[in-house]
Amino acid sequence: MSVTVVDSSAILRLCFAEGDLKLAEQAMHGVAAVSELAAVELPCAIHARCHRGELTQVQAARLVALAQSLLGTTARIAVSRAVLREAVSVAQQHLVRALDAIHLGTAVVTARQQRRRGATIRFCTADVRQAEVARALFGDDRVDFVPPYR
Length: 150
Fold this sequence. Notes:
single chain, about 150 residues, alpha/beta, Rossmann fold, 7 helices, about 60% helix, about 15% strand
C-alpha cells in the first residue's frame, strides 16, 4: 500500500482547475494525507486571489467550499512536535520555505509510520523547489510533480 502526502499547492491546482491535473487527481483518488496546515493555506490562497481582484466573493466562497470538500477526503496529519522537528531538520539540510518544510516534515513522519506498517509514501506537489527537496528526501520515483501551469 502507498499513501500520498499531498501539498497544498497540488490541491489548489485542483480547486482552480489549472494545468495538467492528472497527478493531483490520482493522488486525491488514492490514499491521500495532508498536513493540517492545508486547512489554513487553502482558504488563504483563495482569498488572496479575491483580494487581488482575480475572483469575486461568490467565486471565492465556492472555491473554499471545494477545498474543504477535497480536504474531507484525506487523512489529516497534525502539526505535531515530531513534524516540527522534522521540518527543522529538512531546513537544516535544504533551502526551503517554512511552510514547505512543515509539509515535508509531515511526509517524513508519515513515511516513518508507513514503513513500520510495511507501506510506502509518495509526495505530490505543484511547487518546483519543494519537489526538488522531496526528491532528495524520498527519491525521484516517490515524488509526483504537477507541472507548472504558466
